[in-house]
Design brief:
Number of strands: 7
Shape: globular
Helix content: 40-55%
Number of domains: 1
Order of helices and strands: HEHEHEHEHHEHEHEHH
Strand content: 5-15%
Largest sheet: 7 strands, parallel
CATH architecture: Alpha-Beta Barrel
CATH topology: TIM Barrel
CATH class: Alpha Beta
Bound molecules: zinc ion
CATH superfamily: Glycoside hydrolase/deacetylase
Radius of gyration: 18 Å
Structural class: alpha/beta
Amino acid sequence: MRDFTLKAYRSLLEAFLQAGYRFLTFEEFLEHPEECKAIVMRHDVDELAWNALKMAQLEHGLGVRATYYFRIVKQSNVPEVIRQVVELGHEVGYHYEDLALAEGDEEKAMASFEKNLAYFRTYYPVRTVCMHGSSTSKYDNRLLWKSHWLPDYGLIGEPYLSVDFNKVYYLTDTGYAWDGEKIAVRDVVKTGFDLSFHTTKQIVDCVGRGQFPDQALILAHTLWTDRPFQWYWLHVREYIRNNIKHFARNNKTVAVVYEKAVNWYWKKKH
Ligand SMILES: [Zn+2]
């Protein structure tokens, strides 16, 4: 059976529901960290915004609320999608990358951060933000918070800064695998758990056996699809991308060419 389809995603949600877990949005979780069996489903909408809507509808049908982080680039920032995701009862936040876009200019980055945050607040009263990895940029977007304070911007949390991952299990579907951390450059966290999965089915089985941690933050991107052509194309693309990323680590020329290609692909909207 193909993994990372909407069908597989549904089986994952149903496994948690059957095992008595509650799904909380990230803002709810920050306000009620004591909730004993809780899953925060976080979606970074890096691209393919319409796929996010499909996931949001599926979740809604199961009574699940999740958190969607949208980027300012046009591949993510699709007003119709954001509007509908809000209507389905999910939390929306800003997937910021201002420091990378401003090439390290902190003042410029903070000005665009505020402007973009205000923009996303026209859809939803945004209270949490989450950094985009910007893997080819040398700037780590999170560093904005070294000299600024979230509450000054009406924010209560940032997944990379506000969660103790020794207590909350962290899972991400980077590179179409649940154990693809090796290739993720920045979207990694230090964790106190000695537990790892490769396929969605393995997670479902673990939840069924009652061996899955009580609290988890799960990052699922928008590459989950039931459409065979899109599924195959994305798998080939991820495979190539992972290899280039791996190669670029040891080869400067490859790294530079890759960064140029990525920047061209994400041509800024503004
Ligand atoms: Zn991202």
